[in-house]
């Protein structure tokens, strides 16, 4: 056997492997003998027909596939030893030559190698941490949001007015297309509706049908509708007025199902909850900033298979979640106005971020010998149990049943590393108002959540298994809403 090793990048090598002709002949013969056990030949029992008859009845493509599998299974392992290559994950295979008549078998294996991380400075880094100053006006703003959410919508025996909730049958006709079937739709006037839509139905009464044409904005979420004219047909079925409750003790009881009985207590709870939430958000923002600085100072290299695996997992998760809701990826993409290419790029960006975070945290854990202990895991389980309002024992049982221990271990390891990094950092506090932050909840668990799914310390490499040869290279609505 001849093996040629060609470096592709720091985390990939290509092995071109040539298997001797006599081994090819033997593998072809073995493949036919395997098929002989199952081929039906008139006049012979299964497995008893002469090989010449068997060869006439087994498709050559099937024999080629099985012969390649038999040869690759042994040749790939031998090639790894001969070339002193330590694979990180199964390879991508490309068959270059396979002649059943008896020429040498040649194939190429693109072998992923372990990630390489060279850390820069990760101790004594300086970051800013926000300290949120929550005022009474901040609490009052939250009270107003709660009042809006607690609004009632009684029937109104009158024409449509601004801020009403209208139930209507809506159909839409685009260009030369057929109009859609009328669909029951709830429309809150004054909300984020298509520009000009509200004005067209103001003053209408139950039973009225309004037909009008509007243009979708150039920045409309559904890309295929941007800038297009649409003819709407709206038949009013119900008119409901919006009644916002007063800011009083009755409101407190209504929005908490009686748990809180006074407005003052509600305000106190809101201020406490806002403080807790914003404090956690502030800590996570600081952690994110620390991790980003560490990543910027580090050299991080990893094989493409890591990203591909993350994208595949994320896509499968999306499919499962959509299937549970009775829809599919195509409908989902149409509703959010995103193409498959855009979705892939989103998945790719988030996968690469998770991998980088996981790898740097894993390398810090290795260098600082931050070994995970049972108390660390117990604390992580207790925290998860508190978040889900259950007991640690119940959470542990759930994790065991659903094979979730790997994820909780990764989170515990990430937390241990983040605690270490934070302990050596220079944290400068800055007092800000709650409005001086962007999407704090989006940042809430970024370092730990990323590390929980990325390849890093405590995250094993994909299992090494026998590769499967292939003869080809592996290749990598709502218009009614107004």
From TrEMBL:
Protein purpose: Involved in protein export. Acts as a chaperone by maintaining the newly synthesized protein in an open conformation. Functions as a peptidyl-prolyl cis-trans isomerase.
NCBIfam families, from UniProt?
tig
In its UniProt record, a GO molecular function of this protein is: ribosome binding
Query: Region labeled Disordered — which residues?
Result: 430-482
What EC number(s) is this enzyme filed under?
5.2.1.8
Q: Enumerate composition-biased segments (Basic and acidic residues).
A: 472-482
Catalysed transformations (reactions) = [protein]-peptidylproline (omega=180) = [protein]-peptidylproline (omega=0)
Q: Which GO terms describe its biological process?
A: 'de novo' cotranslational protein folding; cell division; protein transport; protein unfolding
Q: Which GO terms describe its cellular component?
A: cytoplasm
Q: Where does the record place Basic residues bias?
A: 462-471
Question: Low complexity: which segments have biased composition?
Answer: 437-454
Q: What is known of its domains?
A: Consists of 3 domains; the N-terminus binds the ribosome, the middle domain has PPIase activity, while the C-terminus has intrinsic chaperone activity on its own.
Task: Report the protein name in the record.
Answer: Trigger factor
Where does it reside? Cytoplasm
For this UniProt record, the keywords arranged alphabetically read as follows:
Cell cycle, Cell division, Chaperone, Cytoplasm, Isomerase, Rotamase
Task: Describe the family membership recorded for this protein in Swiss-Prot or TrEMBL.
Answer: Belongs to the FKBP-type PPIase family. Tig subfamily.
């Amino acid at each position: 056997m001849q093996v040629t090793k060609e470096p592709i990048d720091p985390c990939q090598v290509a092995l071109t492997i040539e298997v001797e002709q006599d081994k090819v002949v033997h593998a072809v013969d073995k493949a036919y003998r395997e098929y002989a056990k199952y081929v039906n030949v008139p006049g012979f029992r299964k497995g008893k027909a002469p090989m010449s008859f068997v060869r006439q009845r087994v498709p050559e493509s099937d024999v080629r596939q099985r012969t390649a599998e038999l040869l690759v299974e042994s040749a790939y392992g031998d090639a790894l030893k001969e070339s002193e290559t330590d694979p990180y994950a199964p390879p991508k295979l490309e068959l270059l030559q396979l002649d059943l008549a008896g020429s040498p078998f040649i194939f190429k294996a693109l072998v992923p190698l372990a990630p390489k991380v060279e850390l820069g400075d990760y101790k004594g880094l300086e970051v800013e941490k926000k300290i949120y100053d929550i005022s009474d006006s901040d609490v009052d703003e939250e009270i107003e949001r709660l009042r809006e959410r607690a609004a009632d919508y009684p029937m109104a025996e009158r024409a449509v007015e601004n801020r009403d909730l209208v139930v209507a049958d809506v159909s839409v006709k685009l260009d030369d297309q057929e109009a859609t079937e009328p669909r029951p739709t709830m429309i809150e006037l004054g909300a984020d509706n298509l520009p000009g839509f509200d004005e067209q139905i103001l003053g209408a009464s139950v039973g009225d049908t309004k037909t009008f044409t509007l243009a979708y904005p150039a920045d409309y979420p559904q890309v295929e509708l941007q800038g297009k004219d649409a003819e709407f047909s709206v038949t009013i079925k119900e008119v409901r007025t919006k009644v916002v409750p007063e800011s009083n003790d009755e409101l407190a009881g209504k929005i908490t199902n009686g748990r809180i009985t006074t407005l003052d207590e509600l305000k106190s709870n809101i201020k406490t909850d806002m403080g807790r939430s914003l404090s956690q958000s502030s800590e996570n923002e600081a952690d994110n900033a620390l991790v980003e600085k560490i990543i910027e100072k580090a050299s991080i290299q990893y094989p493409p298979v890591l990203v591909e695996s993350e994208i595949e997992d994320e896509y499968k998760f999306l499919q499962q979640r959509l299937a549970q809701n009775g829809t599919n990826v195509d409908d989902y993409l149409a509703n959010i106005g995103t193409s498959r290419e855009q979705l892939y790029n989103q998945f790719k960006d988030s996968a690469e971020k998770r991998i980088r975070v996981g790898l740097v945290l894993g390398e810090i854990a290795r260098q600082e010998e931050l070994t995970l202990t049972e108390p660390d895991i117990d604390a992580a389980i207790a925290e998860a149990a508190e978040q889900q309002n259950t007991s640690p024992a119940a959470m542990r049982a759930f994790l065991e049943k659903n094979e979730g221990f790997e994820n909780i271990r990764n989170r515990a390891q990430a937390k241990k590393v983040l605690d270490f990094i934070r302990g050596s950092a220079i944290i400068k506090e800055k007092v800000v108002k709650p409005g001086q932050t962007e999407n704090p909840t989006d940042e809430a668990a970024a370092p730990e959540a990323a590390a929980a799914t990325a390849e890093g310390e405590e995250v094993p490499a994909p299992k090494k298994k026998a590769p499967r040869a292939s003869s080809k290279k592996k290749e990598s609505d709502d218009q009614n809403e107004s």
